[in-house]
Automatic annotation (TrEMBL):
Pfam families: SSF (PF00474)
Reaction(s) this enzyme catalyzes, per UniProt: iodide(out) + 2 Na(+)(out) = iodide(in) + 2 Na(+)(in)
Predominant cellular place of this UniProt entry's protein: membrane
Membrane spanning stretches: 6-22, 42-62, 74-93, 123-143, 155-179, 191-214, 226-247, 268-288, 308-326, 367-385, 391-413, 425-443, 455-476
Compartment(s) where it occurs, according to its Swiss-Prot or TrEMBL record: Cell membrane
The name this protein goes by in its record: Sodium:solute symporter family protein
Family: Belongs to the sodium:solute symporter (SSF) (TC 2.A.21) family.
Source species: Lentzea miocenica
Top-level taxon of the source organism: Bacteria
Membrane topology: Multi-pass membrane protein
Entry-linked PROSITE patterns: NA_SOLUT_SYMP_1 (PS00456), NA_SOLUT_SYMP_3 (PS50283)
Keywords: Cell membrane, Glycoprotein, Ion transport, Membrane, Sodium, Sodium transport, Transmembrane, Transmembrane helix, Transport
């Protein structure tokens, strides 16, 4: 990287910190910190939802899979998310918003205490918070690997640099800072992605490279599903991503909660769905063409996009692409930190510390900022001490994808009227059964070296067990109550209810 590239990167970090400082003035209470007070425009909510859904992992782990296997990564990742979010625009996005508007909910898990019971809420809060801190650690490692590849910066300093900047604006500005930096990062990502796309198009002599490269690549690279990514894997991941990106990934539920109304939240979801279907194609085509430009990298494919950037882009543009990588990671991490802070301060601490229940509004806001600082710091510590080789893909697929289903199924299906009679017995059994299944399979695969336990099996089985338990026990042992009925009925429209249940 040259001087101009470093100037671009430094300028990016300065702008991110500046947004955090500016957003601090908009934060008056924890409602502003966690849900933007329900005042976020629908288009900003939609862009923020999209940007918060992926990170530099795409340019490390997913780029490696695109290099080695071709088209399949778009099919099982981007396509599943785009369709799933489109479905969720009608099923879940408005309901999340109405929880905030009608029940003063500030955390996605807050409603579970009434929908099921407190033990269910606590199990999901602790399990999800533990999962997310490891997930975020993988994001730090991914962006540090990119920085190391482009600029030779040691992984330790890469994690520290990006982590500290993210920590500053997240602690100061809450969800407003997250959303505004998401928008800035959307612009930067757009410029960086188009720069790489057109550089590759120029290399091949025109835009027609999009359909001519496939004849020069291995035949399997144009297969929708190939390698370890089977139809079973695709179907399991489609269900997982539908649940995850409609609120099972808690920070994305926040984007819908921050919109002014349920109708606005629905528009936000449709915008995000459209972006998921179209924009990743611009990002993936250079990755698919990479074997023709930087061949022989199958053994080190995680660095393929880095080598592409070095080979294809002029001075200044490399810095912009690197800033785009940062933007992905910082967008996801800051939003994750904000929602985990909401869960900790609203759902966990009041149950284990009586002092949290009697705090003033100013004290609650201070606690939220301290918790954000500590959570990001812990994730950075895990990243700094992890074995980085293969860490990113292992965490993102073997851990996050496989455990998201058991955590998300009771949370997400509990919002739908068809499951109104499903109570805490079904929810607890579903989560415990699914997570226990994953633990068993993961130990078999990683430590006992059972090669029968494939990637598809470890992703799909916990999900299937969790779903079957939830449905079977829910139908066999209905646990209806007036409070649950009132809660679910209140989520049908934006119209005010005669009486609402306070969550």
């Amino acid at each position: 990287m040259g001087t101009l590239d470093w100037i671009v990167v430094a300028g990016y970090f300065v702008v991110m910190v500046g947004i955090g400082l500016w957003s601090r003035g908009r934060i008056k209470n924890i409602a502003d910190f966690f849900t933007a007070g329900g005042k976020m425009p629908w288009w900003l909510s939609g862009i923020s939802h999209h940007m918060s859904g992926y990170s530099a992992v795409m340019f490390v782990a997913f780029a490696a899979e695109a290099y080695r296997l071709g088209l399949t990564v778009y099919i099982w990742w981007s396509l599943t998310i785009g369709i799933g979010v489109g479905i969720g625009a009608f099923l879940w996005a408005p309901a999340w918003n109405r929880l905030r508007a009608k029940h003063d909910v500030k955390s996605p898990l807050e409603y579970l205490a009434i929908r099921y019971n407190v033990p269910t809420q606590q199990l999901m809060a602790w399990a999800g918070a533990g999962l997310k801190v490891v997930d975020i650690a993988a994001k730090w490692v991914a962006v540090a690997l990119l920085l190391q590849g482009f600029a030779g910066v040691p992984i330790f300093w890469g994690i520290a640099l990006v982590g500290v900047v993210t920590m500053v604006y997240s602690v100061l500005g809450g969800l407003w800072a997250d959303a505004l930096t998401d928008f800035g990062q959307f612009i930067i990502q757009g410029a960086a992605g188009l720069a790489m796309f057109f550089a590759v198009a120029s290399h091949f002599g025109g835009i027609n490279f999009m359909w001519t490269i496939w004849d020069k690549l291995p035949e399997s690279h144009s297969d929708p599903l190939t390698g370890p990514y089977t139809l079973t894997f695709f179907m399991a991941l489609f269900l997982i991503k539908t649940l995850e990106y409609n609120g099972g990934m808690w920070n994305l539920a926040q984007r819908y909660m921050a919109a002014p109304s349920g109708f606005a939240a629905k528009r936000s979801a449709l915008l995000s769905a459209g972006l998921w279907l179209v924009w990743p194609l611009i990002l993936f085509f250079p990755m698919w063409a990479a074997p023709l430009i930087v061949p022989g990298m199958d053994a080190n494919a995680e660095q393929a996009y880095v080598e592409m950037g070095k080979a294809m882009l002029p001075a200044g543009m490399v810095g912009l692409v690197l800033a785009g990588f940062f933007s992905h990671t910082m967008a996801m991490v800051s939003s994750d930190a904000n929602v985990i802070t909401a869960v900790i301060t609203r759902d966990i601490l009041p149950r284990i510390w009586k002092g949290a229940r009697a705090m003033t509004a100013d004290a609650q806001l201070k606690l939220a900022r301290i918790t954000t600082f500590l959570f990001i710091g812990l994730s950075m510590t895990i990243a700094l001490t992890a074995d980085t080789k293969g860490f990113v893909l292992k965490v993102v697929i073997a851990l996050v994808a496989a455990t998201m289903g058991p955590i998300a199924i009771p949370l997400m299906l509990g919002l739908l009227p068809w499951f109104r009679k499903f109570g805490p017995t079904a929810a607890l059994s579903s989560t415990i059964g699914g997570l226990s299944t994953w633990i068993f399979l993961y130990v078999e695969q990683q430590f006992l070296k059972d090669f029968v336990v494939s990637q598809a099996l470890i992703v799909s089985t916990p999900l299937l067990v969790s779903l079957v338990l939830y449905l079977a026990i829910g139908f066999a042992k209905p646990e209806a109550s007036p409070e649950r009925d009132a809660l679910i009925d209140s989520l049908k429209s934006d119209e005010p209810d005669v009486a609402t249940v306070k969550a």
